[in-house]
Backbone:
């Protein structure tokens, strides 16, 4: 045969072994089984979004119910939006919304325009100099009284302040005393190894248990 001529097969090509086809089919079947197991596992362990949404709406409704019962200086639309704000901020800082409501009850009796004898203002009774610092931390434009008497901003700053105190003192009871008496005063008590007043914390807990 001339070596320069192209080689042309004239007989039947040899049959490819079936083993590779079987291995490939088994591999595909195995991958399908694995995928089915993963999907089933996710469907079991992922939270039910519908249920979570229902729980959110139920909790917001309960918060709104408390506001409707006790607040006298906010309209219905504001109460609904404020209920959502309290829920979202509480969730963000890992607080029970009902505990925040109890704190608001003790501080201002749910009256947005409340002003204490010492000059604390709004729902969560923030001192202006404290609120100005909190506004700066949170990127809120500070306008003085308009900021303090904005219920959404007041609640946002107040919950942030409480959360910061909890982190600073690593104890909710001490943090509550600091919220009421001021952190400087409470730090002084700690340095002098004097007892921390617990009456404010107990007042909030008492209201919490009745909401």
Residues:
């Amino acid at each position: 045969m001339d070596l320069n001529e192209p080689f042309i097969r004239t007989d039947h090509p040899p049959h490819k072994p079936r083993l590779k086809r079987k291995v490939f089919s088994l591999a595909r079947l195995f991958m399908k089984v694995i995928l089915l197991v993963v999907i089933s596992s996710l469907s079991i362990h992922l939270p039910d979004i519908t249920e979570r949404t229902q729980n959110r709406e139920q909790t917001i409704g309960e918060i709104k119910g408390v506001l409707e019962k006790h607040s006298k200086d906010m309209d219905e639309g504001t109460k609904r939006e404020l209920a959502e704000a309290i829920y979202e901020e509480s969730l963000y800082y890992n607080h029970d919304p009902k505990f925040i409501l109890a704190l608001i009850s003790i501080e201002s009796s749910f009256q947005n325009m409340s002003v204490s004898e010492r000059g604390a203002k709004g729902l969560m009774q923030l001192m202006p100099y404290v609120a100005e610092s909190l506004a700066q931390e949170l990127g809120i434009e500070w306008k003085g009284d308009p900021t303090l008497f904005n219920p959404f901003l007041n609640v946002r700053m107040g919950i942030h302040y409480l959360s910061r105190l909890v982190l600073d003192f690593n104890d909710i009871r001490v943090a509550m005393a600091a919220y009421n008496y001021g952190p400087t005063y409470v730090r002084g008590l700690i340095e002098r190894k004097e007892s921390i007043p617990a009456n404010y914390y107990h007042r909030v807990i008492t209201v919490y248990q009745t909401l």
